[in-house]
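Worked example 3 (structure in, sequence out).
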């Protein structure tokens, strides 16, 4: 079961020099950001979490990773010997029991406040209350954690721990812990963001569309290649459980909405590893469209739709505009023990790197 701990973090911000805490602490972390028609405030908790392999079922992933991303994260750990960016993990707390533990803390002056370029206000409180930490440990002991973001970093953390454990590690060594930002899955401000596919390589528009019609209904969106509002309006017309996405080709003024044909089963086609995943956009887009209609093309992802479309002017052949998955869809994937394709999801706003957790095999966190 998840074992959480405090740690001697290094807290830093633009107006605050990096300074390591003299004693172990946990950190309450708020993100205030602009949303549709109002301002939202997401409440998180930054702690050290005892690592365990996915097979144990305590920390559950929902998407795969690539060797390149894992290797890059591992190389960074070897150099820095510290966790500079936490993983994002969710827990279920419909009664908001965790939030109630921090009401007194949130009424005090934050240890650090910082506004990032996207306008998000980040506030951090350092907490060294042993009684509060004890209550949190008790609360999290029977619960699973849903890994939301940072799958490559978590797998790199596990690999680095294994490297360090060539010499036996104490049970509570900091090398056995990951830096984690925990958030309530029931928090209404928590929402995923889509990762749009950026396709590079030789692409013949009519050939791609002809191939796609084997599995998809293709609808032309005239003069909509750079009209993001029209693209997302078209996607909103399709219910969430019916896979759909928009494709924009370099050199074309039109966009194309592709909707999975009602008589097509991605699972039967071998494009989905589990029946429950066959109606999820990333699975269908990657395995049934890109892999088959654009076989051999290289794929990267971009969260910012405007940046994604701009790549069409600098060499990209096509963009696949995606819809976000719901939090429940994501959690259902990991509860089934399944994985979405790598880079299927993102979360906004991004976590600010305000706290670093040094890795010292000889330092205990308990």
């Amino acid at each position: 079961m998840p074992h959480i701990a405090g740690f001697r973090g290094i807290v830093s911000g633009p107006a605050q020099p990096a300074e390591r805490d003299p004693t172990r602490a946990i950190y309450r972390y708020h993100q205030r950001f602009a949303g549709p028609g109002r301002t939202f405030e997401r409440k998180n908790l930054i702690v050290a979490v005892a690592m365990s392999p996915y097979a144990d079922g305590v920390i559950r992933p929902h998407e795969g990773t690539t060797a390149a991303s894992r290797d890059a994260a591992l190389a960074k750990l070897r150099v820095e010997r510290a966790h500079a960016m936490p993983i994002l993990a969710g827990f279920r707390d419909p009664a908001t029991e965790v939030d109630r533990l921090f009401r007194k803390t949130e009424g005090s002056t934050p240890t650090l406040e910082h506004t990032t370029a996207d306008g998000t206000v980040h506030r951090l409180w350092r907490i060294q209350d042993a009684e509060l930490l004890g209550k949190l440990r008790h609360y999290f002991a029977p619960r699973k954690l849903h890994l939301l973001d940072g799958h490559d970093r978590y797998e790199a953390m596990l690999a680095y721990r294994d490297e360090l454990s060539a010499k036996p590690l104490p049970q509570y060594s900091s090398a056995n812990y990951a830096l984690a930002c925990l958030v309530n899955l029931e928090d209404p401000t928590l929402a995923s963001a889509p990762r749009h596919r950026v396709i590079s390589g030789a692409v013949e528009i009519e050939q791609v569309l002809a191939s796609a019609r084997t599995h998809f209904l293709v609808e032309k969106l005239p003069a909509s290649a750079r009209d993001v509002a029209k693209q997302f309006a078209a996607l909103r017309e399709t219910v969430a459980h019916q896979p759909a996405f928009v494709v924009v080709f370099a050199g074309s003024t039109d966009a194309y909405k592709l909707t999975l044909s009602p008589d097509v089963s991605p699972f039967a086609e071998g494009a989905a590893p589990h029946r429950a995943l066959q109606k999820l956009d990333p699975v269908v887009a990657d395995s049934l469209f890109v892999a088959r209609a654009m076989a051999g093309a290289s794929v990267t992802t971009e969260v910012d739709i405007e940046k994604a479309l701009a790549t069409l002017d600098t060499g990209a052949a096509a963009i696949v505009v995606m819809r976000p998955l719901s939090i429940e869809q994501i959690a259902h994937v990991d509860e089934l023990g399944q994985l979405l394709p790598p880079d299927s999801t993102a979360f906004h706003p991004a976590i600010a790197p305000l706290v670093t957790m040094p890795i010292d095999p000889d330092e205990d966190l308990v």
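Notes: The chain has a mean pLDDT of 96. The chain has two domains: 4-191+348-358, 193-346.
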